[in-house]
Amino acid sequence: MDENNISGMHIYYYYVCKRKLWYFSNGLAMESENENVKIGKLIDETTYKQKKKHIMIDNTINIDFITEHKLLHEVKKSRKIEEAGIAQLKYYLYYLKKRGVEGIKGRIDYPLLKQSLNVELSEEDERELESATADIVKIISAALPPKFKSKRICKSCAYYDLCCI
């Protein structure tokens, strides 16, 4: 894989857990039975029904929906891993900017909380994303996953049993 094929999910997992990123990128998909993932899918199915959702670009990034005034929306169930969601949305802005799309902004929507967070891309963010995408390529190309590092979110992760064997 090269940096042109990095998806929003790669970025999200990079900021959540590099081990989860490796598992996901190497074909170990365990999310389908995870309760948190099921709740996220239910939120996706039942909110913003009037919007054209899941806009796939270059078969690489999948934007939840776009509204007028070039505003990209990413829908999240909670603010628990907000840093990763912000990075994912900034990556979408970065990805589109690299392809000549100007003047776009982002918003993370938390429908259960009835809150939103506006997100913009800075030059510093661009440098950080360039570094992150290079690191992602290294991580997912490795023969083995990164070492396990226990975090507060581990117990709710779909990969918890695999990591803690």
Automatic annotation (TrEMBL):
Keyword Iron: yes
Cofactor section: iron-sulfur cluster; Mg(2+); Mn(2+)
Keyword DNA damage: no
Co-factor: note: Mg(2+) or Mn(2+) required for ssDNA cleavage activity.
Organism domain of life: Bacteria
Domain spans labelled DUF83: 8-164
Protein EC: 3.1.12.1
Cited InterPro entries: CRISPR-assoc_prot_Cas4, Dna2/Cas4_DUF83, PDDEXK-like_dom_sf
Record keywords, A-Z: Antiviral defense, Exonuclease, Hydrolase, Iron, Iron-sulfur, Manganese, Metal-binding, Nuclease
Record-linked NCBIfam families: cas4
Family the entry assigns: Belongs to the CRISPR-associated exonuclease Cas4 family.
Function: CRISPR (clustered regularly interspaced short palindromic repeat) is an adaptive immune system that provides protection against mobile genetic elements (viruses, transposable elements and conjugative plasmids). CRISPR clusters contain sequences complementary to antecedent mobile elements and target invading nucleic acids. CRISPR clusters are transcribed and processed into CRISPR RNA (crRNA).
Protein name (database record): CRISPR-associated exonuclease Cas4
